[in-house]
Amino acid sequence: MNSLKKYLLNTDGHFGQFGGRYVPELLIPIMEELQEAFFQAKKDPSFKNDLLNLYHNYSGRPTPLYFCENLTKKIGGAKIYLKNEGLNHTGAHKINHCLGQAILAKRMGKKRLIAETGAGQHGLATATVAAKFGLKCRVYMGARDVERQRPNVFWMEQLGAEVIPVKEGGQILRDAINAALRDLISNPEDTHYLLGTVCGPHPYPVINTYFQKIVGEEVKKQLGGLPDYLVACVGGGSNAMGLFYDFLDDKKVQMLAVEAGGKGIKKENGKFAHAARFGAMPDGKQAGEVGVVEGFKSYFLQNDEGQIEETQSISAGLDYSGVGPQLAYLHDIGRVKFTYAVDDDVIAAYKLLARTEGIFAALESSHAVAGAIKLAKTLPKNKIIVMNCSGRGDKDLFIVTKKLGDKNFANFLKEQTKNV
Ligand SMILES: *Cc1c(COP(=O)(O)O)cnc(C)c1O
Question: Residue 182, SS3?
Fold first, then answer.
């Protein structure tokens, strides 16, 4: 296949050995219905129009492509540009695929959205579009995550969504996914499962890549030429696919994906101390292995029995053991290079971007910032790097407060809730 762009939006959802649809029998007709609806909609100019309208009028697209002049000077290497997805409505790129899937669900006559969420960011974006489109909304969230991510639970409920704490298994994201799938099987007629990244069974990776590719398309126009490097952080991979996609056939453009290095690429007390599937463990072997989990084939951080393992990262959005099948393929053919940033480097990058440019990047996005800074140092001044700032940092207030040990602010928080 000579066009990677065509290949990665193909209708059968296989990307080399990755992708596919490994789901219970009962889910197959539901996935087929969704696939058909999507490929029909994609051909329909009115669907495309609706989508562009929402991007523009609801989310505020196009988001700026901004030249970080001060940061560039400070680093002294390649020119660093920042694609500011944090200026989207709800503060991150997630709204791109939520809007797309919401209008697709409407078109299919669905009355109800369900979603899984770990950190709560995806649940929040789903609750947002459900409110806007008058759809019922239920968000499944591991009970442990509900405790850890209270602010997002609060906002989802304010938006009218029902948040269901899932009390099975480890009470985290994968248990929420299973609960959402069971719900979908019980309610196939009226429900759309709004999956939150470029993972899951076919057609989700294709659908979400399609709804995210606006990011790279805008960059191409805004830059008026090709960059030398694109840099994005990778959890499941949706913001990276969004930035990379439109450039995949431009051979001159190199791509760097930055995973969560957590406390280093190693195990601590038998558990992964990071979430970097492509990072090398102390024995030299890549941490992630090929497996079939949650309905698709890709690389996962897993144990010897093929069960996915918990991961660790300062950023909740990258704290996930799997990676999208298209990215797994792009890794294996060498089109996208992978690296990682450890928590301490992420915090340093977060601070440096704030102090030089006045921009708080989300902790997820700060991985891309850390990766871009490291890369810029190795390149001459005439090279151009575009990094994706997938979200803004406001949501990380409590994590950063803890990490920086800001006692005054901690006291303020205690005071605020005294009489609730
Ligand atoms: C959820 C999230 C991510 C990680 O998800 P991807 O699918 O890998 O993009 C990255 N950045 C932000 C701001 C997020 O909210």
Answer: helix
